[in-house]
Structure formats: structure tokens, C-alpha cells
Amino acid sequence: MSRISLTLTLCLGVVIGGTLLFVVSSTSNSGKKMHSTGPSSLVIRHNQIVLIGDSLTEYGSSEPGGWASLLTAEYSRRATVSNRGYASYNSWWLKFAIEPLLRDVGNVNRIKLVTLMLGSNDYVNERYPKHVPLDMYIENMKEIIQTILRAAPHAKLLVMTPPPMKIRIAWDGEQSPSNPLVFVTIEDAKRYRDACLSLVESLKKDLESRLDVLDTWNLFIKDKKYENPSYDPSELSHLFKDNRHFNAEGNRVLFDGVVAKTASQWPELSATKMETVLPLDWQNAPSALSGDVDGAKKWVLKNAEEL
């Protein structure tokens, strides 16, 4: 019998921290490295976008038409969008988790954009554990902003103010049905919004190129009508599924605001300006019938890097 030479080919494709990793090698039964049509060791890296916040961020992925889901679709093939929103969390609790959460995303040097929206739990009535006093909220937000910019050195940070709600006073009737207690008021919401806005504007003086703020009140309420003490926020009812959480229409408004602000402040981070990880111009790709292996690899892997 003639001796049969066996060849073992290993092709491994793994996604690690938003990175697509290929390792292709061929080894004969003699242990020698064989020629392979695949790359020996290449990595395709995705840029990262991280969304940090409370339920208004978390539900942006879990609700139909959520703003985070829309953002994921917007950056499809260009960047990985990671939702790190945690319902019921305030600035006090979340500040301890910021750096570990960013590390979990993967290569922090690939994080290009972070959004931060906190405060809607902080301003609830002080009877509740969620409450954070205004001065402490300001200090927490300052610390969180500094931590993000330090831990993700190449990231831009878009802070969003705590948004308005559709009612002047929200009552908590669960604990005392016969005598409901005040849960939140729109006046408190505006105080924390004003504080967030002022804080970011003051920090921008030294971080102009990396930090900006999206005023959600001006986004949702036209002509600054909220400055009128008798303003009736019920006009926003079509944007909310309950007193404070967005419906699909409200999520769309927030998504449009984030996209527009990002494009105006950091044009290079607009999805339309970001290069796709894998090429879109399939018309220029060598066909399978051509047998042009080198040409196909060159086209598909033009953005790949050697490890």
C-alpha cells in the first residue's frame, strides 16, 4: 500500500470583546507547517460605543423601537454598541462600577463614544433609597465623567441631561393607597437637569474636544416652554409609555438627538463617516468562480491587522 499523508487544518473564528479573530494553520503528519489559503493570524477589530445609564438607557434596548436598538442598527458593520443601562440605579451606586464596566467591553482603546444619562432616580423623593441629594449628584457626575475619560482614553463622551416627564407630580400610591406620597416632581427633574447642564458646560472648558452635553429638555420641549412656571408637561404624553419612560416615538426623538449631536460635535464618529469593518462594495469583489484566492482575501480582509 502507498503511504497516505494526512493533513490537519485548523480554522478558528472567535469573537472576543467585539473583535473577530481568525487563526488558520495547516500541519502535516510530520509536524511541518503547510501552506494555507487563509491568513496565519489576523484580527478584525470593531470600534466600540458604550451607553451608560439607568432604565432610560436599559429599556432603550429591551423596548420595541428603543433608542439604543436604533443606534445599534445605525452603526451596523461599523461599531459594536454595548448597552450598560441599569434600571433603578442612581449616580451614587453606578459610579463604583464605571471602570469595571468599561473594561468588560474589551479593548478600552477601541471605545470611540460613550453616552451617559443619569439623574432620573437621583431626584426622586428623599424617602426612597434611590434619592441622591443635588450636591452629591453633581459630585458623582463629575467623578463619573472623569473616570470615563480616563479609563477610555480615546473616547468622546456625550452626557445627556435627565429628561423631562409628562406629569407635574408623580404619586406613589403603592405604599399608601389611601394617602399617596409624592414620588417625583417636574420641578425636581428640572433642578437636576440644570445642574447636569451646568456641570458639563464648566468641564468642557478643559475638555472641549472630548466632552459635550445633549439637553434633552430642549430636545423634547420646543421654545423652552418649560421655563413658564405654569407649563403643562402633559403635552408630552405622546412620547411616553408611562409618566417617565419613553414609548417608541419618544425613543425616536432621543435617538435622532444623539445622532445629530454626535454628527455636529464629532463628525468622524457619525455612522456615515465611519468605515465598515468588512467592505460593502461586493460588486468589486473577485467571484468564487474566478478562483482568485489572493484577490478575495485582499478585498475581504483589507481592514484586518496582524496580531
TrEMBL record:
<dbReference type="Pfam" id="PF13472">
    <property type="entry name" value="Lipase_GDSL_2"/>
</dbReference>
<dbReference type="InterPro" id="IPR013830">
    <property type="entry name" value="SGNH_hydro"/>
</dbReference>
<keyword id="KW-0378">Hydrolase</keyword>
<dbReference type="GO" id="GO:0016787">
    <property type="term" value="F:hydrolase activity"/>
</dbReference>
<protein>
    <submittedName>
        <fullName>SGNH hydrolase</fullName>
    </submittedName>
</protein>
<dbReference type="InterPro" id="IPR036514">
    <property type="entry name" value="SGNH_hydro_sf"/>
</dbReference>
<dbReference type="InterPro" id="IPR045136">
    <property type="entry name" value="Iah1-like"/>
</dbReference>
<feature type="domain" description="SGNH hydrolase-type esterase">
    <location>
        <begin position="51"/>
        <end position="252"/>
    </location>
</feature>
